[in-house]
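Reopening: structure tokens for the S-adenosylmethionine complex, inputs below.
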Amino acid sequence: MGGRTGVSAAPSKESSQIQAMFHDISSRYDLVNSVMTGGRHHAWRRAAALEAAKDLAGGGWALDACCGTGDFALAVLREAPSARVAATDFTRGMLEVAKKKVGSAPVSLGRADTLRLPFRDAAFRTATVGWGIRNVSDTAAALRELARVLAPGGRLHVLESGPPQGCLGRLGFNMLCRGVVPWLGRLITGSKHDAYAYYRDSVAAHLTASQFADLVRASGFAEVAIRSFAFGGVTLHSAKKP
Ligand SMILES: C[S@@+](CC[C@H](N)C(=O)[O-])C[C@H]1O[C@@H](n2cnc3c(N)ncnc32)[C@H](O)[C@@H]1O
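Re-run output (same inputs, fresh job):
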């Protein structure tokens, strides 16, 4: 993996390539998500946002890292209206879409690398990452950075897609991700970077849910809980900073 350090199972791509790829698909990213999941991606974020809202009883700050076009930050705000939400991403195009979507809602958007978050230690009571951790060049370092900015007792909630487990999961992955997704993604976005072939390969190469749980523990978290959706195609890891 050229230029990469630490633990990451995703296929080699430099940060600049990741940014170029997401910038390229940013205007169609939401549409592809809705088509490919039949709109279910909103329900998965809502399930995670309901968990994050438990951390925000009485208000406080939430962080959504790798925020993309802002859906996860807005989902957290919907479930915890008295909270304040900071949302960061390193891709300009994704943040431009997020800015339009967020409008006047109290979400502070900023351009930042999840490996070097511009926040003081223990600033947040909860942190979310949706389908972003797989793309960060050093997964363990990103988890440690998220632990740094969380207050003791605060929780991290990571939604991600990983290699399929079980017969139904493998069948669904082979039908959708190996065939339809790269083709449909290219058709809808016209991606020059073949973003949805990268999606297929990075999902297949990502850690399994239990491997990721081990990494979350090794990165400074406790009480790791796993929920799965879509026959295991999507998982939510929630974990507490001791
Ligand atoms: C698949 S999108 C997910 C967007 C959003 N979280 C969602 O729920 O739809 C992945 C996002 O992670 C961002 N990303 C990847 N690596 C990053 C890093 N090291 N720092 C900040 N953002 C990163 C990309 O720019 C992209 O917007």
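The radius of gyration is 17 Å. The chain has a mean pLDDT of 89. Marking as resolved unless the reporter disagrees.
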